[in-house]
Structure formats: structure tokens, C-alpha cells
Description:
Keywords: Signal. Residues 1-19 form the signal peptide. With 186 residues, this protein is an all-alpha fold. The protein folds into four domains: 26-65; 67-102; 104-143; 146-180. It contains nine helices and no strands. It has helices at residues 2-18, 30-44, 49-63, 69-84, 88-102, 108-122, 127-141, 147-162, 166-185. Helix 2 (30-44) packs antiparallel against helix 3 and helix 8 packs antiparallel against helix 9 (166-185). The radius of gyration is 31 Å and the shape is flat. The protein starts with a helix and ends with a helix. The model is unreliable at 21-25 (pLDDT under 50).
Amino acid sequence: MKQTVAVLLLVAFLAQTYASEEFDDSDRHPYVQCKIDLYDCLRLNKKSNTQCLADYKTCMSVLLPTVPPLVVKCKNELTVCKANAGGLYDKMKCYANFAKCMVPTEHPYFQCKIDLAKCVKDGVKDKLVCMKDYKSCMAQLLPTIPPIVSKCNVGLNTCLAAANDYKGKAKCYTDFAKCIKNGLTS
């Protein structure tokens, strides 16, 4: 709870800092700024109309969205595949591989859900068995505690059980922190 309050106060402080006037950025969209620059260039006659339009084109070209790397990779593979394809069937396989390449991979959590839905829908296994399979699938995806943390935690628990006062308990926690630090660096 205290951590949540601390985080909220930090966020509020940062929001207030960036909301101050010294960080006030123009709310103009870059597209609008390009139009304003073109208008000013043409109106003030500092450059020729051709040069103003060339500057406008350069300004607008920066705003064009770029193609995601996945699409570029898949298109390159499609081009190579089509160049090496012998007939119509091979080219169709190239397009099928292109479609598979374009589909983003699913997170393993979704695969567990898909397997659960198939298991329940097929009805081959009992629903309880399907749920157990789902639970074991999800359990494999959970992060595990590193062995060094488990070892240091055992040492902390034994030290806390033997400590009589706050000073002894504080020493246990500092030893725990040192144990983890030494274990992670080695």
C-alpha cells in the first residue's frame, strides 16, 4: 500500500513538472507545422516556389509511416521464394508461406487456452482432466524463483528464528541482501 502511494506521488510530481510552462511544447501536429512552413515560405518569398515545395515534400516525407520489419522480412522471403519457384504450385506454396509469416506468433498463454477449448470441445477427455492439463500448461509458463534466492531465503528464516531483538533481525535482513547480491554477481 505504501509503495502504491509512493508511486502515485511520484507520477503526480512528474506530471506537474512536465505540465509547467517551461516544458510547454506546441500542440501542433507535424503535418500542420509542415503546412504552416510552406505557407510562410510562399508568403515571405525568401525562397523560390520550387524550393518551398521541395522543403514541404521533405517535411512531409518524414511523417510517412514506415513498414514494420516483420512485413519487410516476409516480403523479402516471398520475393526469393517466387524467384526460385518452378511452377504455379510452387508459387502458391510461396504465398501460403508468406501468409504464415505475416501472422504474428501467439503467446504461450493463448496456446494453453486454445488447447483447453479443443479438449473441452472434443469431449475425448473429462472436463476435469482438461482443466488439470490446462493448469499444468499454465504452471510451466510461470517464472520460477532462482535457486540462489531460495537458498538465501532459508538462511534468512533460520536467522530470524534465532534473532532475539530488532538489531539481530536487522542484521538478518542485511545478511539476506548480501547473500542475494553475492549470489547474483557470482
